[in-house]
Design goal:
The chain is of the alpha/beta class. It has a single domain, classed as Alpha/Beta hydrolase fold, catalytic domain (Rossmann fold, 3-Layer(aba) Sandwich), CATH 3.40.50. The chain is built from six helices and eight strands; from the N terminus they run E-E-E-H-E-H-H-E-H-E-E-H-E-H. It has an eight-stranded mixed beta sheet with strand order 1-2-4-3-5-6-7-8, sandwiched between helices.
Length: about 230
């Protein structure tokens, strides 16, 4: 699917369609590896759970169609560089444009959420803070502790799923998240014990099936509760 983000600009997106429509929609925000088979599997699972799932190419302004290996060191380094290129407000404008177009689709019930992983987890949180989506769920968001002040404008529900042993979100970062967001009326914090970063990624060596299933059930229930109808 091609999604317009400007008068003469468009990005590509992977779309997974549920059996019934109109349905609540979810913008799935990928990791530093692009639209990989893993993130497509996430979208397919969300569609099977009844959501219209749309995965936009977040790197399109830097390099369209990038798909990187999740285990190759050189690809990881390239992905990190591409992720750093999304530090400005333009990526949030792109996400807002995607959400707006998805909201207007006949297959959508008028409600749009975001689900993000790693880099995409931080962006899902920021998209909710900016009011671009109606709800957001983030898995092991990286750098979240550096953008917590954005929650000062947060007026819609956010689920933050934290891996207890996440080397990319160490104890001091987790402590900061809990200190600043633990009492926020719109934020639900859930920590998964004994697992590290990417514990929910399909095909990852770090995947923990039991905890991944729990996190995915929690996400689906959260999204269903907040995206049920216009």
């Amino acid at each position: 699917m091609e999604i317009r983000v400007g008068a003469d600009e468009a990005l590509d997106a992977y779309v997974a369609t549920p059996a019934r429509s109109p349905a609540p929609a979810v913008v799935v925000l990928h990791e530093i590896f692009g639209i990989t088979p893993s993130i497509k599997a996430v979208a397919d699972a969300l569609a099977a759970a009844g959501f219209l799932a749309v995965v936009p190419d977040l790197f399109w302004r830097q390099s369209k169609g990038v798909v990187l290996s999740e285990t190759d060191d050189a690809d990881r380094a390239r992905g990190m560089a591409l992720g750093q290129g999304l530090a400005g407000p333009q990526v949030l404008d792109d996400i807002a444009a995607v959400a707006a177009q998805v909201r207007a689709l006949e297959a959508c019930n008028g409600r749009v959420g975001a689900v993000g992983f790693c880099l995409g987890g931080r962006l899902a949180f920021l998209a909710a803070c900016a009011g671009a989506v109606d709800a957001a769920a983030a898995y092991y968001a990286t750098g979240l502790h550096t953008v917590l002040d954005a929650a000062g404008t947060l007026d819609r529900p956010v689920l933050l799923q934290i891996a207890e042993q996440d080397a990319l979100c160490p104890p001091e970062a987790q402590a900061a998240i809990h200190a600043q967001l633990g009492d926020h009326a719109q934020v639900t914090l859930k920590t998964y014990p004994g697992v590290g970063h990417a514990f929910a990624r399909p095909g990852s060596p770090a995947r923990d099936p039991a905890m991944a299933d729990l996190a995915n059930v929690t996400t689906a229930a959260f999204l269903s509760a907040h995206l049920a109808g216009a």
